[in-house]
Amino acid sequence: MIKHIELSKAYRLLNHGPVVLLSAAHEGKRDIMAVAWNMPLNFNPAQLLVVLDKTSSTRKLVEASGTFAISLPTRSQVDVIMNVGSISASQLPSQDKFSHWNLSVTPATHINAPLLDGCVGWLECKVIPEPHNQETYDLFIAEVVAAYADERVFSNGRWHFDDHDQLRTVHYTAGGAFFATGESFNVEKAATS
Questions:
Q1: What cofactor is needed (predicted)?
Q2: In a domain? residue 156
Q3: 193 domain residue, yes or no
């Protein structure tokens, strides 16, 4: 079951460093790309950072719309990550990655970008304009306006993949190499007295 996540805890969806799929839409066009360089920035207000190369067609839609969606794909979706992350929509006959790979989506509730079905977390984001950072460093700052997660693997503000290997988020290293999110464990805080 998909549940809303309190915005002050939305950073926990990204805090462990997974690769994400970023989608955007504007004036009837849509696109999706893999983004390994992403991170939470703040929890109140909920904010995050992503790096989007100037040559990306998805970036052009982000700049035009001022919004984007983040979907957290799973181990079972690594082919999707590689496909949308390594092939430009302009190289496809349909010019649409969603239709080319039959990617099922759900409309976002606060923005126009689609949310990729089958993932385990989703963030709806509005860009905080920072032209210098965007042009110089390809760095986009965004406010998270809605967050959701699959409660089979995320509840009470924590990831718990123990019984769901194929639902583990993944980390991209390079050259088609991935790591699946590993085992979780707890450590007690040190006493201060």
A1: FMN
A2: yes
A3: no
